[in-house]
């Protein structure tokens, strides 16, 4: 069964007909070409497909596309503005938090959501927040450093 | 010699593409009207296919083709990502068919469907009717080697794939001259690579009728050859393209889905077909790490000098050979460098079982053998009442040692310095003293373990690497290599090497990250920790060739002899004082447009490296053991490596972090579980398979002892795989120190630890 839905995708309005059984991941990747959304397991275990739905992190592989109706979706493609890397992206580059890069978009989005929450996190809290993402390359060390750097940079921006 | 770019933490050349989502992996490309391929898998671990009826599946609307062993070429082929050998006796075992006529593990590919979409393909799979004759499932090496056991492959008696080992010196004499002979038994479990990107490929016939396969692989040129072998078509008729790869760790050093994907497109007249494994499929039908059992004997003098070593090993390779016995051979070979004894005998046997196929995985047999031997050494140290470090120090290899069998010569060795550094980082002496005689429910201990490895595979296999450089009008260059970037950072390191030689900023070296076997220079691929060392030689050679041509060209322009010139900071300069002769751009422009001498500068080089540099290293770990629950917490862990000169410290540290994390998973939590009766995998998903999360991973400390190996470009040695080798035995030895209980089987998960503690009377 098909259903027409409307949502905002990286700031732009999208009207689209989806199969009610389709995941948001499949619609974003295969029908709209947002291939920065990665598929690592398809069942909500690995976090590679994370997108932001109304600012909240969501595993798009287990989130039905129809649920996106009326919501604001952000993918990795919408994070850099006018060709400028965001604070989070910059931190991931600088701290060497990127290796194969397959888990990177999801982690950048989760870190972005943490930064935008305006909250402060202890290291342990931060680890818990990031624990929905598997990474097999980095041992998480530089990812944690990048996340901490992002939040500090974000804090500085707020104070300025 | 001071370098300007080599040795610096230059940012990854692909980092921006990866943080913006622009980096394209195999599944990010689309062909119009791409069909979907799906595989039907055997529910039985061991069964002969009596008949297959595909008529109902074929009749389903939307199904374009159904493939079985009757419709695909019946040519047995090998799958291991090794270079081809002109010597037939040195080739990998050819035991695989594109689709099998006999199921050898639960999940074996018995039929396949090509359909317009995934749903139709899934439905069609359910309509295929197969009659099986079920045979006994042999799920352990003991069962498989038993007299009268059914044969998994008809040509291998007792289901033994191979048992070639080595022996040198007089072991009997070495043992009889020893003051002590110690024995021990050790066991490791199968684990999975769990790269984030599953195996995926798509294939089609191009306008000229050539087969094109785009795939997530570490070894594009080997995929080309093996697809050619499997389909019995000329190798040159196959073109393999490798985009960005989401991790491999050895699993993509094997040809898994590509031959079937090729057969699928051929079955539908060359229309594009995508074949993507789900996580659940990838965890049973790609490769695993071989589980090993070891029996070890070591003879020593009373002051701790090792006289002789005997190691018997049983390696479980699963249903097909894949890398097979090479894993056992390689582990035994790389082990030899660390503690050269006067006599040694290694007796490995690699056995087929009806379990998922084991193949290459980071470390390639060494995590297993070093777990066993480094555990064994700590037990010996304990019995001799000697510090485990002291025992090892008495036996470490010396520079100048020539391995009797490989003839590889140790030209650099920093193992003693690595140990000294690690000892200091963890505060060894202080903590060994502090943690003596504990009796509470939580006990702490420190442990360590060492390793030796290799840089590439010489002299076992060829080490040919290719590099091509083209200089542009502005003096920037394109670099193409046959070795693949799979996350390890090789593209960045190669860019640094070129920048160093040509006096360029790294941003002016454009690395073409995609490999395309039609275009890319030949290189056997990314494995054996060979990229920086082996491909690095080719890259340096290509850059030096471009430099020589350029300086020669400038000689023609200026009458200044080439040997007096050099390249620095985008200028042609006098070598002796750095005075600028002309900007690089001016000379580069001239090479393109000089009406008489114009000839753009390129280099297309291949290098056959007939050398091997031996890297070393050590893990130091501190644990806290919860006696009542069997839970082990890693408090501190340090890996210190001698990998020669470090080209990019930040990337190198990243490699170590990832390897140590994988080693911690191997030590404490990861294990593929099988039903012993049916052979079915019980935890082929990321929920039940206990991969470390960020919560499970401690802060990982890294140190380097930078020796300079004369054989490597810029003095480098291997680093990619080594970090995963020694964490497991170091953690095991830390637990041994904390509790006195020898945990000789991996993983040391709470259940197993609890059981051992109970046996030992701690609970």
Description:
The complex is a heterodimer of chains A (160) and B (763). Chain A is α+β, with helices and mostly antiparallel strands. Chain A has two domains: 2-78, Ubiquitin-like (UB roll); 87-159, [2Fe-2S]-binding domain (DNA polymerase, domain 1, Orthogonal Bundle), CATH 1.10.150. Chain A has five helices and five strands, in the order E-E-H-E-E-E-H-H-H-H. A five-stranded mixed beta sheet of chain A has the order 2-1-5-3-4, covered by helices on one side. The longest helix of chain A has 19 residues, at 141-159. Chain A is globular and about 45 Å long. By secondary structure, chain B is an alpha+beta fold. Chain B folds into three domains: 15-22 and 464-608, Aldehyde oxidase/xanthine dehydrogenase, molybdopterin binding domain (Aldehyde Oxidoreductase, domain 4); 31-135 and 196-247 and 252-284, Alpha-Beta Complex (Aldehyde Oxidoreductase, domain 3), CATH 3.90.1170.50; 288-457 and 611-759, 2-Layer Sandwich (Aldehyde Oxidoreductase, domain 4), CATH 3.30.365.10. An eight-stranded mixed beta sheet of chain B has the order 3-5-1-13-10-11-12-23, with helices on both faces. In chain B, helix 9 (325-335) crosses helix 10 (366-383) and helix 10 packs parallel to helix 18 (727-739). Classes of the chains: A alpha+beta (160), B alpha+beta (763). At the A-B interface, helix 2, helix 3, helix 4 and helix 5 of A face helix 1 and helix 17 of B.
């Amino acid at each position: 069964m098909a259903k027409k839905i409307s949502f905002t995708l990286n700031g732009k309005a999208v009207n689209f007909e989806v199969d009610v059984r389709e995941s948001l991941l499949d619609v974003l990747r295969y029908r709209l070409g947002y291939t920065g959304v990665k598929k690592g397991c398809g069942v909500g275990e690995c976090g590679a497909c994370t997108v932001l739905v109304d600012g909240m992190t969501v595993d798009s592989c287990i989130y039905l596309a129809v649920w996106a109706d009326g919501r604001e979706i952000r993918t990795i493609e919408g994070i850099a503005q006018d060709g400028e890397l965001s604070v989070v992206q910059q931190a991931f580059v600088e701290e060497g938090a990127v290796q194969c890069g397959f888990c990177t978009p999801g982690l950048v989005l989760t870190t972005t959501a943490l930064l935008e929450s305006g909250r402060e996190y202890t290291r342990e809290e931060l680890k818990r927040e990031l624990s929905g993402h598997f990474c097999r390359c980095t041992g998480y060390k530089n990812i944690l450093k990048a996340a901490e750097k992002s939040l500090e940079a974000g804090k500085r921006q707020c104070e300025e | 010699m001071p370098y300007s770019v080599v040795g610096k933490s230059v940012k990854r050349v692909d980092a921006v593409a990866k943080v913006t989502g622009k980096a394209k992996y195999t599944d990010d490309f689309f062909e119009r009207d791409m069909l979907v391929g799906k595989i039907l898998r055997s529910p039985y671990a061991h069964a002969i296919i009596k008949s297959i009826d595909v008529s109902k599946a074929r009749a389903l609307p939307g199904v374009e083709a159904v493939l079985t062993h009757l419709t695909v070429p019946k040519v047995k082929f090998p799958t291991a990502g090794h270079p081809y050998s002109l010597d037939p006796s040195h080739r990998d075992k050819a035991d695989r068919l594109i689709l099998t006529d006999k199921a050898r593990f639960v999940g074996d590919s018995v039929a396949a469907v090509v359909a317009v979409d995934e749903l139709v393909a899934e439905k069609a799979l359910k309509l295929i009717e197969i009659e099986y004759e079920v045979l006994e499932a042999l799920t352990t090496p003991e069962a498989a080697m038993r007299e009268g056991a059914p044969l998994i492959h008809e040509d291998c008696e007792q289901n033994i794939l191979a048992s070639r080992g080595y022996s040198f010196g007089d072991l009997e004499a070495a043992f009889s001259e020893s003051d002590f002979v110690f024995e021990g038994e050790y066991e490791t479990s199968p684990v999975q690579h769990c790269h984030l990107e599953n195996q995926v490929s798509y294939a089609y016939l191009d306008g000229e009728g050539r087969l094109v396969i785009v795939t997530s692989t570490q070894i594009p040129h080997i995929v080309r050859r093996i697809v050619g072998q499997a389909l019995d078509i000329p190798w040159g008729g196959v073109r393999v393209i490798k985009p960005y790869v989401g991790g491999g760790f050895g699993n993509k050093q094997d040809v898994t889905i590509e031959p079937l994907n090729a057969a699928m497109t051929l079955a539908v007249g060359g229309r594009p077909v995508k074949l993507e494994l789900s996580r659940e499929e990838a965890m049973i039908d790609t490769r695993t790490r071989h589980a090993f059992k070891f029996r070890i004997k070591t003879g020593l003098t009373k002051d701790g000098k090792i006289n002789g070593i005997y190691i018997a090993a049983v390696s479980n390779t699963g249903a097909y050979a894949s890398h097979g016995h090479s894993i056992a051979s390689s582990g035994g070979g790389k082990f030899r460098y660390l503690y050269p004894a006067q006599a040694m005998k290694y007796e490995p046997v690699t056995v087929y079982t009806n379990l998922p196929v084991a193949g290459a995985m980071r470390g390639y047999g060494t995590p297993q053998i070093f777990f066993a031997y480094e555990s064994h050494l700590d037990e010996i140290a304990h019995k001799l009442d000697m510090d485990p470090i002291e025992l090892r120090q008495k036996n470490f290899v010396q520079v100048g040692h020539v391995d009797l069998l490989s003839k590889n010569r140790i030209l650099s060795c920093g193992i003693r310095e690595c140990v000294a550094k690690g000892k200091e980082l963890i505060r060894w002496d202080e903590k060994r003293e502090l943690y003596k005689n504990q009796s509470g429910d939580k006990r702490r201990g420190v442990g360590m373990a060492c390793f030796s490895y290799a840089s590439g595979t010489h002299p076992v296999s060829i080490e040919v690497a290719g590099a091509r450089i083209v200089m542009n009008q502005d003096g920037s260059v394109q670099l193409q290599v046959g070795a693949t970037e799979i996350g390890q950072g090789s593209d960045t390191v190669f860019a640094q090497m070129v920048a160093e030689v040509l006096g360029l900023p790294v941003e002016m070296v454009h690395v073409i990250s995609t490999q395309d076997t039609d275009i890319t220079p030949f290189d056997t691929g990314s494995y054996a920790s060979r990229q920086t060392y082996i491909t690095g030689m080719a890259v340096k050679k290509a850059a030096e060739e471009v430099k020589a041509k350029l300086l020669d060209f400038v000689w023609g322009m200026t009458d200044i002899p080439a040997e007096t010139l050099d390249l620095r900071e985008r200028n042609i300069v006098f070598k002796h004082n750095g005075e600028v002769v002309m900007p690089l751009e001016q000379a580069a422009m001239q090479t393109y447009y000089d009406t008489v001498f114009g000839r753009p500068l390129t280099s297309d080089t291949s290098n056959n490296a007939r050398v091997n540099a031996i890297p070393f290293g050590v893990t130091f770990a501190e644990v806290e053991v919860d006696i009542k629950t069997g839970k082990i917490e890693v408090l501190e862990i340090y890996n210190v490596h001698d990998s020669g000169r470090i080209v990019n410290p930040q990337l190198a540290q990243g490699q170590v972090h990832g390897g140590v994390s994988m080693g911690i998973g191997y030590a404490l939590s990861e294990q593929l579980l099988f039903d012993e009766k049916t052979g079915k995998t019980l935890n082929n998903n990321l929920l039940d398979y206990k991969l470390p999360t960020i919560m499970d991973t401690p802060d990982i400390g890294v140190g380097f002892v930078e020796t300079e190996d004369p054989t490597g470009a810029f003095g480098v040695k291997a680093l990619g795989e080594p970090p995963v080798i020694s964490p497991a035995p170091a953690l095991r030895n830390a637990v041994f120190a904390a509790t006195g209980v020898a945990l000789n089987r991996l993983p040391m998960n709470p259940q197993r630890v609890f059981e051992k503690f109970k046996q030992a009377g701690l609970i």
